[in-house]
């Protein structure tokens, strides 16, 4: 998911950061020892306390699902290369981010890497960014209809679905690149958790027209299908987080895994996972690996951002 469209409205006021202790993990002997996480902001976890510095512009949390999974598995080596705004091209090229750049994510891969998670695809051709950047503004024009669906339908063709069809091949190519660099690694492709509820609406949280709730859901399901098909085509394992997140969509109140439109400086970025979502996803991924999960916090990996550094980030984003 892209960070660019909604970050610019934020003014960051952050209290002092403290070290978070690691929870107890129940896995006796880890099956994996060298873990690398690749992905976009649904992996990096923007504004879930606390944010790392390497680089800060990636909005990479110390409590995202890679960190929680690494703690659960008790791996010997853990590298999180995920970055907000990333698409498939950022696996092999540097990504420009506020206040710096993120190295090609494939740089984190090694020949002896034995576990890789990949969460990517939502930003290719700006699919999710177009949805959250366009649909809320269209609600007032037809609050009970589906103006967003109409907007993205050109000559009877859904342009977002067309883009997603191309994304499948791009993700397949990424997976092939992972296998080339880490030939002995177990590779998991992580799907996107549910954003909209199967029925009902919550316009104060998700400001979409009533008919665009099922449309948003259909776009997400199509993206997950594309990612799943890519996994099948490239000898990887797809991990479904959409189905287990039923009842945890953005409309689910305190049970939500996904933040709504409002920027909670101490919880999550708009339309992105909360810490509860990361805990839930880590549990799903751990089960896919045959490991039970009991970790709810992870020890910070590297340095975390100070108040002054986060203020610099806010200023840079407001200028952009």
Which terms summarize this structure?
320 residues, alpha/beta, 9 helices, 33% helix, disordered N terminus
What can be said about this structure in brief?
The chain has 320 residues and is of the alpha/beta class.
The shape, in one word, is globular
Distance between the termini: 18 Å
Question: In what order do the strands lie side by side in the largest sheet?
Answer: 2-1-5-8-9
What profile does the largest beta sheet have?
5 strands, parallel
Low-pLDDT stretches? 3-28
Helix content: 25-40%
Structural class: alpha/beta
Assembly of the depicted chains:
single chain
Order of helices and strands: HEHHEEEEHHEEHEHEHH
Per DSSP, what share of the residues sits in E-state strands of 2 or more residues?
Answer: 5-15%
Count the beta strands.
9
Q: What does this 3D model show about the protein?
A:
With 320 residues, this protein is an alpha/beta fold. It is 33% helix and 10% strand. α3 packs across α8 (275-288) and α6 (159-181) runs parallel beside α7 (212-233). It is globular and about 55 Å long. The model is unreliable at 3-28 (pLDDT under 50).
List the topology elements:
Layout: H1 4-7, E1 34-39, H2 41-44, H3 65-73, E2 77-80, E3 95-97, E4 100-102, E5 115-119, H4 127-138, H5 147-151, E6 153-154, E7 157-158, H6 159-181, E8 186-190, H7 212-233, E9 237-239, H8 275-288, H9 307-319
Parallel strand pairs: 1-2, 1-5, 5-8, 8-9
Antiparallel strand pairs: 3-4, 6-7
